[in-house]
Amino acid sequence: MSQEMLNALALPLLFSMLGGTYAYLRFPERRSKVLLTLILFQLVGAYGHATQPGMALFSLLVLHSLVVFALLLHGLRTPRLELAPERTDREN
Question: Model-level pTM?
């Protein structure tokens, strides 16, 4: 039974790791949304593991969590870009 859950979750988790890393590095202004999406994929995988536990799915979830953790650490260590205040012309 656990093989079916692995088959159902393997490609989405691999895609989220690869696509999430690409989006995280390519679009710095969207990092918080990308990290939220990766964490939600992790939760879906954890639910799948809770319903049908298996060593292969657990290994895939550990790999996924390491990627998410590394991106979270990178986000905490990277200084935020401050936007310059917008100039407005006021006519009196």
Answer: 0.80
